[in-house]
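Researcher: I'm preparing a figure for a lab meeting and need a structural model of a single chain. I don't have an experimental structure, so a prediction will have to do for now. The sequence is pasted below. Please return the structure as C-alpha cells so I can convert it later.
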Amino acid sequence: MMNREQALALLQKYNKEPFHIRHALTVEQVMRWYAKDQGFEDEQDFWGLVGLLHDIGKWKEYTAGIDHAAFGSRLAREILPRAFFNQVESDIICQAIYEHRNINRDMSFLGERLHRADNLSRFCQECDCRDTCPKVAHKESSVSSFEY
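Model: Understood. Here is the structure written out cell by cell.
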C-alpha cells in the first residue's frame, strides 16, 4: 500500500492549486480523527489516505466540467492496484471518493464520513469560487451538527 508521501505526490501530480492541496491535507487529518473517534484507530493511516486522495479528479472538473467525484473514482481505480492496494481496499476507496460529493441514505460508512470531513475542511472564505459554489450554502460548520 502506498504511504502518505506517495499519496501526496500523486495528488500533487493531478492538482496544482495550493488551495486544493491544503484542503486535501485538512480532509486527511479530519479523516484520521474520524477513524480514531469511530473506533478504527488501527486504520487511521488508511482513512487518512482516503481523505488525501478524495479530490484527485478535481482538476478535470475545472478543465472539462466533469464531475470530479466520478472521475476521481475512475482514476483511483486505475492507479490504486499499481500502488499495491488489494481489490477490497481499492473498492472501498473508490466508492468513498465517488460518494463524497453528495450525501444520501445509501452511502457507505466511509463515504459518509468522507463527505462530512470534506464539508468540515472547507476554507470557503479563501476560495475564489465562494460566491457561486453550491457547497457554501449547505456547509456543515461543526461536529455537533451531525445527525446519525
